[in-house]
Amino acid sequence: MAVPRQPAPARRRLREDEVFPAGWPDHRVHRVALHGGERLRVVERLPPGGAADDATAILFVHGWACSAYGWRRNMGPVAESGYRALAPDLLGHGFSDKPLGDASRYGAVAMAAHLVEVL
Fold first, then answer.
1. What is the pTM of this model?
2. Shortest CA distance to 115 belongs to which of 42, 21, 22?
């Protein structure tokens, strides 16, 4: 006779200040307001010395159903090489806004426009 499985304990949703880049002191988080009013969360890692204005930006773009967290191991080496590393949570992902109603805001053309706004 099989022993009945106990349900897993309920987990609480992590707050934004508890997830990447929490505990990574060289990273910063910004909110970028899009022309449509939505806001994207962008994780940034500057090169040593923090000269963001002089550094070429490298933009990390995650896939569908992912977030900036997927780039956590890549941003440091890129910044250490002298680049400004930027990893946004795309609209509808991670801790960026998730508007309902207009599906066209989630299409490839709209997402590309959002990335241009981040830059």
1. 0.84
2. 42
How far apart, in whole angstroms, are the C-alpha atoms of residue 15 and residue 20? 10
For the segment 22-61, what is each residue's pLDDT rounded down to a tens digit?
988 899 999 999 998 999 999 999 998 776 667 899 999 9
Cα distance between residue 40 and residue 34, in whole Å: 7
34-40: list long-range contacts, CB under 8 Å, 24+ apart: 34/91, 34/114, 34/117, 35/117, 36/99, 36/105, 38/91, 38/96, 38/97, 38/99, 38/105, 39/96, 39/97, 40/88, 40/89, 40/90, 40/91, 40/96, 40/97, 40/114, 40/117, 40/118
